[in-house]
Design a protein that fits this description.
With 182 residues, this protein is mainly alpha-helical. The protein contains nine helices and two strands, in the order αααββαααααα.
Length: 182
């Protein structure tokens, strides 16, 4: 069994999602910024996670991703299997005679090893990872990252300047003769 960077990033992104999905979907762009991962790569990962039924997506403004199930019902093994191209038989790249020889000599060792790794990954839930992050203080709430980048608007009212000849309401606009409007 090989767990690549793809699987590791998927687990990390899902942990990020579980930490921050309190009231609203989480945009992949915010996960991308926090994780330092390419947005297009995350889109590929979350597409696979959605097909596996681990996340739900919401389109439009305020859209993003949420967990399809509670964090304590999602195992790390499920996340990895959703994004990795794992084969049941790791000997697929060997020739028939080589594969038979390896299987006869050490096949039980590797199949037992893979089974134990999968058992362990199955026992670790997303909630375990979330609790670990909270315990380590690794969670910084970012209620609105875009709001911090926006300039603050002044709360002082600006003085209104009357413009001569310009109606100040829709109702006043209706009182102007049609020829004068053009």
């Amino acid at each position: 069994m090989r767990i690549t960077t793809r699987g590791q990033l998927a687990v990390s992104a899902m942990t990020d999602l579980a930490l921050r999905q309190k009231m609203r979907p989480v945009a992949l762009s915010t996960i991308s910024a926090r994780q330092g991962t390419s947005l297009s790569y995350l889109e590929q990962l979350f597409s696979a996670l959605r097909r596996a039924g681990l996340v739900d997506s919401t389109r439009g403004p305020g859209g993003g991703y949420t967990l399809a199930r509670r964090a304590d019902q999602v195992s790390v093994a499920e996340i990895i299997l959703a994004v990795e191209n794992l084969k049941a038989d790791e000997l697929q790249n060997l020739g028939a005679s080589q594969a038979a020889q390896v299987k006869s000599m050490t096949g039980d060792l590797w199949s037992t090893f893979n089974a134990r790794v999968m058992d362990y990954l199955q026992s670790v839930t997303l909630q375990d990872l979330v609790a670990q992050q909270i315990e380590q203080g690794g969670v910084v709430e970012d209620a609105a990252p875009a709001a911090a980048a926006r300039p603050k608007l002044s709360t002082k009212p600006r003085p209104l300047m009357a413009r001569v000849g310009v109606p100040n309401s829709v109702f006043a606009l209706g009182t102007i003769p049609l020829l004068q409007r053009r």
